[in-house]
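Today's session is about reading a structure prediction critically. Students often jump straight to the picture, but the first step is always the sequence itself: look for stretches that repeat, for charged clusters, for runs of hydrophobic residues. Only then move on to the predicted structure, which in these notes is written as discrete structure tokens rather than atom positions. Here is the chain we will use throughout the hour.
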Amino acid sequence: MSHHSPHHPACCRADHPALSRRELLQVGTLGLLGTGLADLLRLEAHAEPASRLKGRASSVVFIFQSGGPSQHETFDPKPEAPDMIRGDYGVTQTKLAGINFCEHLPKLAARNDKFSIVRTMHHVAHPQFRNEHLSCMYLLHTGSTEMPPGDTNATIGQPRDGRIEWPSIGSMLAFAAPPEASVGLPSVIEIPRVNLMNYPGRTAGLLGPKYERWKVDLAPVCKSPDTAGSCPNCFSHDDPNDPERAAGKGPKAWWDNSSCRDPSFRLPDLGTGGVSLPQIENRTELLARFDELRRSLDNADRAGRLEAWDEYRKQAMKLLVTSRPGKQNPFDLTQESNRTRDLYGREEWGQGFLVARRLIEAGVRMVQINLRGWDTHQNAFRDLKGKLLPSIDHCLSGFLDDLSERGLLDETLVVMCGEMGRTPRISPIT
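Below is the predicted structure for this chain, in token form.
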């Protein structure tokens, strides 16, 4: 995912007669620091029509394991290593000879002829990107090996006026390959829980608000006092049914996922507290809501913000058409059979994967599925075995099977990774 800023002649010459789309997208961060959005779009408008190599993939599903999953307890076990490296788990033989997975991923092991494991991924970015979650998240989502000017790992996760940020991969995809006009949905949609996923690198940055992702919460707002888990409502560190369990954090924590079995689907955040589907009955009401928002905009930044809201207004109108019960609504899982919903798993992760499949079928270019909870630390072996590995094994296997049966697997690029891995030797705080 890492790259160095290229030094294309076209990037440095103001009198260059034409700039290909490929060259435009390859311009490094430093080359664009003095380029405004209007200049960027003007360059794109005058770009030469590039001859494209037509790939098979027409859409992307990016599964982000926030927190950094351990490669040794998932897809790269070391069964012959000493105890302090081998860990607590055994291995299971995959469908491909000579490749083993962790014993708690049996379904994926039986399907590993459908995907490839990359065990050598690394980066050569500045040392500030190493072993730091936020900066590595920025690198992973943007491909940029340089922080925005003025930022460090300590500041990159906080909003800051005037930040010049490289666009996310999703926004670059929306810019380079927008969906057909008939799709009626945004290019990039992020699910299933975004109200607690405020990490850097996911915005449109220099490309502007037209290419922003749409954040869709498929689960209730978290009210848990402890937000460290795959889903704060179903991955709790307090088990009321454990007689040895006292209030607060501790090694005897467990889970109760009942609250996420019936997620409440929402429209993307329109600047209010969240607008649920039943609240908006017609287009007139939605237009009125947007007009109210427009009137409340800060006059000092009126031009830029109105441009953003104009685009959001058009997109929301399109989304409203598909946000009614029925087959045309990708968020309406009542259209799916019980067999299919069980195939994915009736929890937040599984139903999020199912929504992703429906969005891809509807023509969305990229769906990002955020899976929290992989920064396991002290409770790594318990948490991985008890919740994280069984959940990902079930829902990802069902997702791959369903895509394959529907003929979508060959035209959908499915990528799963976290922002970092783990050291081979188990640390004392694991």
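Discussion point for the tutorial: The first strand starts at residue 59 and ends at 65.
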